Amino acid sequence: MDNYQQLITDLRRTFGTGKTRSLSWRRSQLEGIVKMVDENRDEIVAAMKEDLSKPKSETILMEVIQVRNDAIQHLNNLDKWLEREKISKSIELIMDNVYIQRDPLGVVLIMGAWNYPFQLALMPAVGAIAAGNCVVLKPSEVSPATAFVVEKLCRKYLDNDTFQIVQGGVTETTALLSERFDMIFYTGSTSVGRIVATAAAKHLTPVILELGGKSPCYVCPSSDLNISARRIVWGRFCNTGQTCIAPDYILCPSEIQPELVRQLKKALVAFFGDDPQHCESFGRIVNKRNFDRIKRLIDDAPSDKIVVGGKTDVESRFIAPTIIQNATADMLCMQEEIFGPVLPILTVKDEDAAIDFINSREKPLALYVFTKKSSIKEKFLNQTSSGSTCVNDTIMQAGISGLPFGGVGESGCGAYHGKFTLETFCHRKGVLEKKQGMEKLNDIRYPPYTDKKLKFLERLMAKGPSRRQFGLFLPIMLFSVIIGFILKVGWQIPPLNYILKFISNKR
């Protein structure tokens, strides 16, 4: 469909009917996603095998189960997450209702990525649906088999009046971005993220940008190098290194580099054997364009620094797991996010030098620290900025639904996963409800203003450090009791009339 303006108009019309605000509708769509996953697992696995040669285990564990669990979590918590959130009230609002109501935004655009083409398309959609929005989903054209399956299944299992798929490349994406949406959610490169943000700015459309960057990994001499190496190798080389939060390079003191390299080699053989090209657990680069880009990074490195791998095969888009020791900041592999099975190691004096190096570059999507020392862990937590930090493991933080997932600075803006996804696609509307009675009490805030009124209201409303609050405790409590008594008993009791007349006469 190329008439995107009409498509969006139709979705906006549907949204205007209130259909998507119904909790029963939201549940039915979330149940549809669960059913979609349960009934079509093999087809999803096959599509990603075609696009990325992705191992079945990685597809099931990192894509299929993630989407299913996210939909189930939203189903189980929908009532609780959407209930009106009462907030604490100051004394002048003691008799009023004050709360936050979560409203859907309207029609939202979700632009998926090719490296996890099922998860990164459907997980944002889960939260958008749960929040009560209409959705336009644009899967990545770089993973066409999965994009086709996503479209076919969404049309079958979801409400087509509220959920639409748009396929295509740059031309179609550019046309889509010229339209007005109520939110744009984009996952992909920083360069395209800038294009999305620029297009959104035309309509003042809010954006969530899940981008990338070079995620550093510091290995401390105190850490167990065998365990550290295994966890680094898994996080770096799963999905053939095509993971936005994969450790992009290692920083370590020079004295531990030889042993760390030995342990990394050992872990690679344990995971992928002596010939990763014929290992079913190791995938392929998504296309020739990315293959050529990664090969260029390897070719730039001096051959004596490539201690593992370096082998490539353009016909099968295979690039062997590659480790580059004694890398330097001016090498090509340190100038851009690698997004492939290449791992440079740079040596630094200590953790302070590592922190200085990290802080001299753009803020990463993730940061990894391997150490047994709490003091070093705290240094990295408090002296660096990153989308997330994981201590003594890699990429596992992204699978915890209770943690927000998102970048900072160049690595993105906004966050999602679990409840954070629903919050992302909601407008948190502040609501104050007052009753129409007791208008006499409001005289004190109406003109004509007097110094006496001001003094009374200032004393009532002023806040200060907790040690000063006790001085106002008794008068505030007395005021609360008086108001409550008025509501319960009425206006005919002389002492109460006296108070009201006193306030009125002193204006």
TrEMBL record:
The active site is at residues 210, 244. Keywords: Membrane, NAD, Oxidoreductase, Transmembrane, Transmembrane helix. One of its GO terms (cellular component) is cytoplasm. InterPro entries: Ald_DH/histidinol_DH, Ald_DH_C, Ald_DH_CS_CYS, Ald_DH_CS_GLU, Ald_DH_N, Aldehyde_DH_dom, Aldehyde_DH_NAD(P). One of its GO terms (biological process) is aldehyde metabolic process. The chain crosses the membrane at residues 470-491. It comes from the Eukaryota. GO terms for molecular function: aldehyde dehydrogenase (NAD+) activity. Residues 8-429 form the Aldehyde dehydrogenase domain. Belongs to the aldehyde dehydrogenase family. This is Aldehyde dehydrogenase. It comes from Dimorphilus gyrociliatus. The lineage of its organism: Eukaryota, Metazoa, Spiralia, Lophotrochozoa, Annelida.
